[in-house]
Every structure is written in C-alpha cells, then in structure tokens.
Amino acid sequence: MVSLNDVAGSLLQKPTDSAHTVGTRTDSQYKPLTTFNLSHQRSYQQQYGDMYFLRLTKIKPAVEEVAAAAWEDTVIGDERAKQVERVLDVRQGELCWVVGTVYMNLQNKPNILEDVSKDRWISKPDPVHKYFKEDETEEIMLEDDSGRIRLVGDILHKIGLATGCIMAVMGTENSNGELEVIDVKFPDMPPQPERWALSGQPGTQGNGVKKVKGEDEEMSGQTGGKRKKVAIVSGLAFSGSDASYALELELLLEFLLGEVLSPDAQSELSEISRLIVAGNSISGSDVKPVTEEDKNKNKKYGYDASAYNAVPSQLFDDFLAEILASIPVTLFPGPQDPANSSYPQQPIHPAMFPNAREYTNAPGSKEPGWLDIVTNPWEGEIDGWRALGTGGQNVDDVYKYVKSEDRLGMMEAMCRWRCCAPTAPDTLWSYPFQDDDPFVLKDCPHIYFVGCQPEFGTKVVSGPADQSVRLITVPSFSATKEIVLVDTETLEVTKVQITTA
Amino acid sequence: MDEYKKFLADRLLSDEQPITYRLLSRALGIHVNTAKEMLYDYHTYQNGIKAESIHATYVVYGTKTQSSTAGDGDVEMSSSMPEHEPLSETVPTTTLTLVRQENLEAALAEYQEVVSIHVYSLAPGPQRDVSLLYDVAKSLSEFSSKEDPLTAGEKYGTIRNLNVRRRDRQARPKPGSSTSQPTKAQPAKAQPAKAQPVVPIKAEPAASKKPSPFEVAAAAAKLKKQPSSQTPPSSETPASSAGKPAPALKRGGSGGIMQSFAKTKPPKPKPEPKKEEDTEMALSDDGEADDEDIAKEKAEYKDSDAVRKSRKQREEELRRMMEEDDEEEKSEEDPADEEMEEAPEPEPEPEEEPKAKEEEKEPTEITTTSNGRRRGRRKVMKKERVMDEQGYLVTIQKPGWESFSEDEAPPPKKPATASSVSSTPASSAGKAKKPTGKGAQGNIMSFFAKKS
C-alpha cells in the first residue's frame, strides 16, 4: 500500500536548474564460443545414424563409470550384475547392465516410415501438443549399434525419458525378450569449468586468457564493487499487425536505455551490462501461409510487397539500432525468426538489420560484435560464467515426450543426460552431423537459459561433483511482458514486469 | 525558463496532440529527467488555470505487494501447493506500470514499495487507451533520427556505454532507409576532387543523383591524377543540400543534360555548407562521414593498385546507378550553369527528351512525316554476343540501322548515352572508352521505365 505522498525520489517536482547526470553502463565481459556454428559449405547428404553413434560413443564412458560405481557389487538373488558390451549380448535370465540410447515409440509421435508408406509428403508436420498420451501404451527401447531391446519396468514411468538420451539400465531379460529394468543410471552433469576459465578474470592475470586483455584490465578499475546484471528477454515478437503490446515494447526500450524512471532507479538500470534476446524476435503471425493460388499466380519480377511483410523486421531493426547505442546485444534465432529451422539454428543474417548491422563485427574479425548474432543453441562466457542458451525448441520438444509440465525439470534432465537436444535428430529437426555431436555437453554451464517458454521459472540444481547450474525459463515478452535479470556476481535472478493500466 | 510551457501549450492545447517526456526531451534538446519535471510542472500549472484540462499518465516502478502480483486464482493455488516442492523459485519482481492519472491511486495501492514515479505523458483529454501513446513514441524518430545516437544519447540522458563498437563506416555506406544512400555518397566523393561546381540536389532520392554520370565519371577519373586537389568542405554540400529541396531547381525545365557538362565553376562559398552541417547533421548522418572517410582514404593511398581497382569498381557502380536516373536528370536543369542556358535544346515534351537529343546526334534518315510523326531509320549500336576462338563469350558492339517512328517507345538507351558522350567536352579521348563500357552494361531500369 503506497500513496502518492510516500514516494521519495520522484520526479514530481518543478524543473530544477541542477543538471541531471548521465549514467555510464557497466561493461560486459563476454566471450562467445562457436560450438554450434556450422560450416558454410555444409553438405546434407549424410545419414543421421552417425549422430546417434557419435553421441553414444561420447557419452558411454561417462555412463559406464557412473553405472559401474553404482552396480559393481550389486547382488540380487545370488546373482551378481555384470556389464554386457552390446544390447544384443543381453542373455535371458542373466542379471546384467548395458548402456544404450533410448528410443521411445509414442502414439502421436511422427514416424517417417509411416509417412513414406502412406505416401504423405508434407514439409511441415502438424503441430502436436504432446506425443505422450496418458492411457496409451508407450514403448521404450534401448538401442546401440548392434540392435535394440524393449524395456519394461515401473521405474521407467517414474522418470521422464526422451528419445536420444543415453542411459545405463540394469535388469534381466524376461521370456518375452523384454528387459525388466530394475535400475537406471544417467551420465549426470559433465565437469564444470571454473569461473573465468575462458576469458580470464578482469584485472588479474587469469590463466588461459584469450580475450583482449587490455580492455578487461582497463575497465575493471571503473566497475569495481558495482553489481552487474544481464537482461534476458525472448519472444519480443515484433509484429506488423498486432499492436497490443507495442507500447510495452516501447517501455522496454526506454527501460533498457535508462530513460524512464527516476535518477536512483536509472543508476540501477546502468548495471545491466548486456541484453540477450533468446529467440522469436519477429512475430510469426504475419507470415501468410502459401496457398495453392499463390503458387499458380504469375511470378512478378523483383520485390513483391504482397508476398512479404517487412514491417516486423524493420521494427525490430529500429529497436535494436536504438538500444545498441547503449547496450550490447546477443541475438538468438528462435522458431519464428528468419533463420534455418533445423537445429542448430544458424545466426540470422545481418542483412535483416540494415540499421543495427552497423554494430555487428566485420566478417572474419575475432572479437565478438557489439551486436552479436549467434546460433541457437549457443554457448559462451558471460562475465566469467559459462552460459548455455537456447531459443526453446529443445525443451519444447522434450516436453512432448513426457507427462510432466515441469520445464525446469526437463532442463535439469538435459544437464544430467549431458545432451542439450536429445530429441534431435528424431523429432527435433537437426543438421546431420558427421564428425561431432555438438549437442553433447562437454562442459557443465553455470547458467542455462531457455527462451520462448510459456512462463518464467528458475531454480538451481547441483551435480555430483559440486556443479551448480542456474536454470531459467524465459517467458515470451509478447505474452507475459516480463524480462529476466541475472545478477552476474551472485547468479540471482529477478524479473521485471512491464504493464500498462 | 517558461519556454517549455509555451511549447507544451502549443502542442497540447493548440495542436491537441499528446506528448511524452521523451518527445519533449528530443524536441527541446534536454535531459529526459528535466523533461519529466517539466511535464509535471506544466500539468499542475495548466490544471491550476483550468481544472481537468490536461490529463497525465504516470510511470510507477517498484515492488508490488505479494498477493496482488499474482492473479486471484494463483493466490489460492499457491496456498494449496506447499506440500509439493514448487517447480520454480519465487524471485523478486519489480513492476513497471504505465498508468493513467485516474487509476494512479489504485495502482499505487497495489505496490508495496515504489522506487520511482514520474509523469510519462500529457494529453489534452482523458486517455481511454494508453496504447495510443505508441504512435506518439513512434513519431519520436522525426526528432531523433537525425542525430548520431552515440552522441545524442548523452544530451538526453540515455545510459552511455564507453565500449560501443561500430563497424568502420567507410567500408560500408549505411544501407539506411533508401537505396539512394550509396549513390548520394558517391557523387559527393567524386565532386570535391575536381572542385566541380556544386550541383544542388533535390531531396528526393532519385533526384539526389543529379550530377550527370559523365561528369562524375570524368571527375572520378581525374581524381586519380590529382587527388591532392580535393576540397573536403564542398563534399558536404551535396549531401547537406539534399536535405532541403533547392528552390533554384524549380526554375523551368529548359536545361538539358548538356548543362551538367558546363565549365567548371568556382566552388560555392565554403562557410555556408559548413553551417548547414551543424544544423542538418541528420541527412548526412552517414553519408557525410562516409564522404570524408573516403576522401581521406583517397589521399592516403594515392596510387596503390588495390585502391585504384576498388575505385574503379566504385566508379563503375556509380555510373550504373547514374544511368538509372538519366531520365530525371535530363528533365532538370542545373541552376549553377548559367552560361549554358543560352543554348538549351528545345524540348517541348519531357518524355521526348532523350530521344530528341539522340536524334540530333545520330545519323538519321527520316523518310516519312505523315501525321506529324517522323519515321525513319537511324544508326544505333547493336550488341552482339559471340563465342570467340577460346570459347569465351564476347559481347561486341556493332553499328547498325534501326527503323523507328516517333510514337514508338524510344530505343534502348545505349545510343543516347553513346552519343552524348561523344559530344561531351568533359570527357577526353582517354576516358571515352569507359562510357562505352557503360553503354554495354545495359540498364534494366530503363526497360521498365519506358514501358509504363
């Protein structure tokens, strides 16, 4: 309960002669990684099978280690559990454990073989809310390069699983040829790098300093003791037709520029050192589906204004160009953005931003751009913390496999599976990787955020080797008008809501 | 002191337009916080004179009382939830609310703590829909787009960032709002080098490329030989004068393309453009800096081959762009070239212009003049593409005859350009080859233009 008279520090006063100060924004120590960048000369000829093989090969040693530690001396009914190398080596009646890739067969899940046999050739699958159905029988299988075996057991229904994650199962094969699962183990979180592992702590002679050190040291003097925050927003959904949240976007702009609010609050705003836009910056609702009629129409030469509405991207460009003068931006593509739709999404082309591209780095330059247009998922170091971010497709897709609504739980599971996009390439479209599966987490992030989610959520999860991960689901701004602020000293999260009344 | 009151009275009472603190700050060139105070002051002042004449919206920022942050349903939920572990931590939430004055008290009641409050906007009447303020916010660009955001931000109180990096501008003229931007920059760069008469340019994009292609080409070519003769100040003129239509331009359409080839005139007095630069930063926001950059660049690497090559490319580009605008150029006259005015070619219809000219210069056999129409044959350069011994495709130009009639669409532009080049005093023998090259380029725009 606040009444008008209680408010201190307001600007409800006559103009004074004293000059107002201009805040200086704290600098952002930032080092992006190129884990998910694809080569420009990439081929799409390969088979997807290699990805599963690579993933299994990369994660298997870690799972085996965990499983061996847990089950080495397990004796059930005079029988000692022993490891078998391949799924097909499982013998009926023997207690054993084996490592493989989970494959789930769900009722509503798209099935390529079915599509081919029924002669369905649509480019975009029908949107399915969930593949999982409560009363349907689901089939969970474990496979490796030798073959697959069906898994049964109550424990499987207690844990959420998704196609593509790697796990070890212990049990015996029953007379139906199914493996009765007694226990399962996951690789759990990968090792977590120290803070400043990549960029080196500013002001100190950090080891492994690859960043421009001069800049860091120069800045550290000014920012000493000052708190720093990173703002994360997603789903700005600039639209040419839907103006229902246009004013909120304008307020967001003023908020980020530090023009709104009173001097005290403004100085707080100057602590926000970077803005991360985690996907769906441009509304997809303006895109007209291509109808048969459109296709048959005579093609006009050159630009056809009726086929493409440039307003959303222009609005977004203006927005970026304006805030970039004050704050650096990391821009992710999202499901609705003009980038490739398969994972990992490659950066939106700077030509989409005629005004803001001035702030991007020159091609070939080593330093991250002031406007850093990155991949989705993306990995990097923000103020020393290892961060992993996605535009949300990976969580949205895992969400379809499980009964739960707990998206933070899915993010946690991904950390424990050591895979940030397990369902690629099955139901999450993906590039057919040949030599490496970048979705396998080599390092455990400190911050893991996912954009374009229905609501805000955050929690900290910890791993067996003292890893600690701050998970954040970032809601769509267009729906919730919320932005997330992460304190980069404590990793505490706050949010700001912008409303109009 | 009370200047802002007058401004606000104009805006709110006379024009009946709402105004936000940002707009006021941009319009008067003041800090946003001062603008917020001014709005408040004016609000109390004006409503003191006449109650309820001005309506305000406020921005309230702070922490809401816990129970009111969530909707009613959520409150119940959270009380029934405790047995489960909550899926997410609850985090401190600050709320920024834009609220009309009628609702201010109610909005404040929801807050536990208010960090800041100020007037966001004023409007002449009660505002039923705050989202209309978005349109006001959009009109801000009218004031601010003219400034470099990096320097202007300081004046208005935008949080500044000392580490801002922008790409080197000279490498890439700002694509900006229209495609005319690069072209604008190019002639500007070419001209100073030759100390050419400064040709006022119209504001509209098309006309901004008014200097004739040949002149510019020539200028650019000369530039190579005497890079030292550049006069940077004059480089601003074309760009800055582009901001407002030069009134002189409207002086009749009697001038022809020939006028652009006039003898070099003394450059315009330099102080004038300089002054303009200060007030009209905007239009040259980028163009100008580019010009200077490029000019500098030129001076630096006079003769290096690489630079020369890129320069050639630029010229080539420039010429191509110029070509697109040949039509407009021809119908405009160059006020700077007075001496040419005595010898304008009679051109009754602007559309006929290019043709009329080319006919004069070409050997033309007029056979018929029935119905007042001229028919005949004329000599044109025809393009032929052949494969040479080595298997390369070679385009050669051959003179040939073509029949025409007056009401027919004018022939492709190549003849026109070729002929005018040959008569151009400015183009020396050495340069003649370039324009022909350009002729061979063809111009798709002319194709479309003529058809319509």
UniProtKB/TrEMBL annotation, chain A:
Q: Which InterPro entries match?
A: DNA_pol_a/d/e_bsu (IPR007185), DNA_pol_D_N (IPR040663), DNA_pol_delta/II_ssu (IPR024826), PolD2_C (IPR041863)
Q: Where is this region: Disordered?
A: 195-223
Q: What is its main location?
A: nucleus
| Highest taxon of source | Eukaryota
Domain DNA polymerase delta subunit OB-fold: residue ranges:
47-184
The reply on keyword Nucleus is yes
Every DNA polymerase alpha/delta/epsilon subunit B domain range: 230-458
Gene3D superfamilies documented for this protein: 2.40.50.430, 3.60.21.50
The alphabetical list of record keywords is:
DNA replication, Nucleus
- Keyword Nucleus assigned to the entry: answer is yes
* Compartments it resides in: Nucleus
Describe the family membership recorded for this protein in Swiss-Prot or TrEMBL.
Belongs to the DNA polymerase delta/II small subunit family.
**By what name is this protein known?**
DNA polymerase delta subunit 2
What organism is recorded for this protein? Answer: Bionectria ochroleuca
Q: What is the lineage of its organism?
A: Eukaryota, Fungi, Dikarya, Ascomycota, Pezizomycotina
TrEMBL record, chain B:
Which residue spans adopt a coiled-coil conformation according to this UniProt entry? none
Chief localization class?
A: nucleus
List where Basic and acidic residues composition bias occurs: 295-322, 353-364
Q: Where is the composition biased (Acidic residues)?
A: 278-294, 323-352
Q: Which UniProt keywords apply?
A: DNA replication, Nucleus
The cellular location(s) given in this protein's UniProt record come to:
Nucleus
Residue span of region Disordered:
67-90, 160-452
Q: Which Pfam families match?
A: CDC27 (PF09507)
- Which stretches does UniProt call biased (Basic residues)? 372-382
Q: Name the residue ranges with Low complexity bias.
A: 184-197, 226-242, 415-430
PANTHER family on file: DNA POLYMERASE DELTA SUBUNIT 3 (PTHR17598)
What protein name does the entry list?
A: DNA polymerase delta subunit 3
Specify the species: Bionectria ochroleuca
